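Pasting as-is:
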Amino acid sequence: MPHRKLVEEYYTDINNVADLLNKLVNAYRLLIGGAGELNGIALAHKKDVKHALKRVNELGEVIDDLIDVLDKSSYIYMDYCKIKSQIMEYQIQAQYIQTEIDNELELKNDKKE
């Protein structure tokens, strides 16, 4: 099952990216709030507010890149899940049908005896 290990590691990587994205979005929100508070301070210099907003924009670009990575990665994992579901569905249906046929054969054998 070396492929299963690869998929599990891939899933772990996706979770790590999603976790990082969550943390960066929280930092983004805090930076925006900080820039807003800085803007409300009368003694704050305009250049300080611009610098704070520049940092927010830089982090926003990083977040956009992570969203792209997560978007591309999740499609592959979702395809894996869909294929696995189809295989399981087929296997479960096949087992159900086989059990039903076996039960019918047993009933016919019991009636003959």
